[in-house]
Automatic annotation (TrEMBL):
EC number: 3.6.4.12
Protein name, per record: DNA helicase
R3H domain sequence ranges: 722-786
Designated gene of the protein: Ighmbp2
Organism of derivation: Phallusia mammillata
Annotated spans, Disordered: 670-699, 788-820, 846-872, 912-947, 1017-1057
InterPro entries documented for this protein: AAA+_ATPase, AN1-like_Znf, Coronavir_polyprotein_1ab, DNA2/NAM7-like_C, DNA2/NAM7_AAA_11, Helicase_ATP-bd, P-loop_NTPase, R3H_dom
Biased composition (Basic residues): 925-938
Keyword Transferase belongs to the record: no
Domain AN1-type, chain residue ranges per copy: 955-1004
Biased composition (Basic and acidic residues): 682-692, 788-800, 1021-1031
Alphabetical keyword list: ATP-binding, Cytoplasm, Helicase, Hydrolase, Metal-binding, Nucleotide-binding, Nucleus, Zinc, Zinc-finger
Amino acid sequence: MDEFVAKQLELLAEEHDAEIQENKTENTGIPFAALKRKGLCIPKLRISSLKTGLYGRTVTSFSSKTADKLLSSNTFSSGDVVQICKPTNQVLSASNGIVLSVSTKQVSIAFDGAEVREILDSLQTNDNSITLLKVANEITYRRLKQALNDLGKISRGPSQHFVEVLFGISGPISTAINEIQFCNPNLNHCQQEAVRLALSERELAIIHGPPGTGKTTTVVEIIAQLVKSGMKVLACAPSNVAVDNLVEKLSSIQISRTVDAGNKRKLKVVRIGHPARIHKRELHEMSLDALVSNSDAASIVRDVRSDIENLHGQLRKRPDKGTAYKLRKDRKELYAELAQREKRALQEILSSADVVLATNVGAHPKGPLQHLKVDHFDVVVIDECGQALEAACWIPLLNKRKCILSGDHLQLPPTIISHKAAAAGLSVTLLERLVKLHPKSVAMLVEQYRMNKVIMEWASKQMYDGKLTAHQSVELHLLSDLPNVLENEETNIPILLVDTSGCDMNESESESSDSKANEGEALIVYEHVTSLVEAGVSPGDIAVISPYNLQVEILRKLLQLKYPKMEIKSVDGFQGREKEAVVLSLVRSNDKREIGFLADNRRLNVAITRARRHLAVVCDTDTVNNHEFIKSLVDYITEHGEVRTGFEYGNDVDLDMDCFAELVTPKANSKSVKPKTKPRAGTKEKSSRETVKPASNKTLTPSLEDYKQRYQSTLQFYSTEHWDSRDFCDSLAALNIKRQHMNLVFDTKLNSAERKAVHELCEEIGLNHTSIGEGPERQVIVSRVKMTEPNDHASTKDSTEDSPSVPSESDVMHKEEASTCSSIEKTLIDDIKPDVVINFEDTGKVKPASSKDANVTTSLNSAELAPKSSNSAGDAIPYESCEICGKNLPQTNMDLHLMHCARILRMKASMEASKKTDNKIQSAPKKKGGAGKNKKQKQKEPQKDDDFEILNDAIASNRICCHGNCSSYVTTTGQQCAVCKRMFCLKHSLPEVHGCGSGARTQARRQISRDGVLYQGGGVPDRKLPADKRAALKNKLSNKVKTMEDSRRSAQKNKSK
């Protein structure tokens, strides 16, 4: 035992050091700006309200100094320990408090004691600026250390045999029990057997409860039976949430003493703990503070508190020094009287309670339990023991004679920051150790009431030796069985795998932490969740979980605003919870096939067993299959569930990918799995989606997103009515994937730079490409098959004009200006109609054209060129002819096409009117003095009645440097001024050059005063000197300035003489 205690103390100290290092905020010189970025402090606050509440504590509300301003982003949550600091990093003494609640505009904190009330009164009166600082809880470590030291001192006494049993020195003893009359008649057979075992064992009983088997219900029945037999019970759990669950269930139990079975009464339950850490308001009345306030001595206690409040009010009026001293003395005496009266009431309430509940750490002997005798409790019950450190369990177990442990050691252990301490044995819990040490004292619950049988069976086989069974009420339940939920392909499947292998959805890592994320998986999760909600599933019945916190943050950004009731948490944070539907993102996707802490079997077990009716797993099987345990899950879903490729979702959320992932091949003799897709709105539904298998095992080519980013400047520059970068990439993807034997002919309106971008992208992707035509009729043709050059001249022309070398901007502008009015009119009116046209004015869709000029491209099958008139469901897609140009188009595209045609007619009419005006001017007789007027009329620009033309002019104006008469182009090498937000060339980019010098200096001063440095990473912020040194330096500077001014005046006087 001594060796065990020494090792535990060493590992506990190492864990404590790691926790301090992670949450290092005190006395380290770290500026508040750095702590604010980590969410560990909230600066620039004021006290908005101050009152006595929560059973005598001072409840203070803090809000921003600026009215109605939101609080800065923070990690504060209910139950955290915080300190009050001044802006000078000065921590106020005795200012620790417990967070009650946190909102976007206010944080409420409960403080204990009279000293802190004086500090708060002063801060509120002076309206001081306050900073709240989150600090590590040193109390927990001290209590754990004290419990281990006390354990090492136990040598003799009534609890000696009990301790020997827990360390395997002695064996547990069983006794016979009488027939049990259960308080809960709905217990199943295995639950009843667990109750019998717990009552018959004299020192130790263990209830092993896998997910959904009702272990808390069993524990509540055990406690009720113990109380019926006249025993006093101390019930504990590692977290406040678990304790509250016990309190809630015990409060509804009615028992009768065995000697008088006719009279039933409720259990007397007392909850120990800070009221701020009791999450459910309805349970506050069972807290020790509330019971003391409502006891027989409550009226006297209330009078004392009223007197204290009156004294607070008099002190706020700022009386003279003598009166203030007397008032403080009276208040101190009242606080002492209040504590004495509450102590008596507390002792009476605890001794009369049937069950006292607290967290493991809250049950320490120097807390409220110090008012009871050492041997007051007959039995200690610890629920969720598998999530508690063993040292924490020894706090309530010391000096006791019997314990009943409940939990599941095959789920996640307690969170341990130090990996070294965890590997050395700190992660081994008391429950896990005793299950191996005394297997005959273990009762396992095997019938679960949560999961669909298909979801349950994998966990049962892999973790619980195939012992779990599903109750008939949940065995076959699905999402479609819920009220108001549609029955479709999403709600009729219990388990789904979305495989992202080969879809270019690689993981990414945060620069500020080791956590990882996968944006591609996040988008798939977003679409799947959306489809569930659209089917009628309530967002509150859906949980989205991931092992990585960074992925959780991304998912919250995507989903939380749209679905505020949906829970999005890490796997660790969701242990003990359940939802009707769970969507799990495993994140990991890399070439090395590393999976990190996904290798922890218990973490995946927790993630899978949270779902009741529907489970969706999104992962890269190529990466996760490197681990045998996760591979068993993939194989199981392949055999018993449904498998889809990530592209099916990626296409719906406009992910740019260059290939489809191969579907996971089912095992032999297994159920065939076909992926199902949901048609996008406004598109034709396909009967089935093709599966494109890679031709070889070569490395996948970069995605179209990579190409778009590579040529981002060019694509953004030409995002006009003739060109749209997204439609451009989608069109190439359609050709590269779906239309393997068709040609794409791009519009003649593309200029040389645009055609060059097409050629280079096609060269990278591996598509055939060429240009045909001359002048304004020149256009690009792209195809999958090898193309024959129309003529040598065109090929030669393209090698010079559309070669990979980038043409200069002046050449591009020269070619744009060289087009005459007649050629523009011809291009607009006489449309080229090859086999397949990419026209970005008609929504950028690939569409077949008429047979006119069909010789432009290679010959195609007429069936390929004909527009499809029906979808896979047989529903006819309506087509109609344009009233202006006569083209046959789908009705969904007709509105945009009519706008296009109307624009062309307006431009044509404008050009014809301009020509008529010019002809009249030329034919009219010249008059004396009219030459100047005609010259002005010729120079007068035509009125621009087209919004698109105005936008084009605005875009063209942004190509040139904004400084004076500078004509340099800023498309590729320009820089934006941070002050005026305009673009300048490199020569005029400095703010001092183009006239923003004063604004830049002001901005720099603000940056330095706020962050301490001008540029991020540009050095360490200067620490503020103490006030006395600053005053001395200020005086020294003033004296020096005065000396210099005197010398300058004397020099001027001498010069004047």
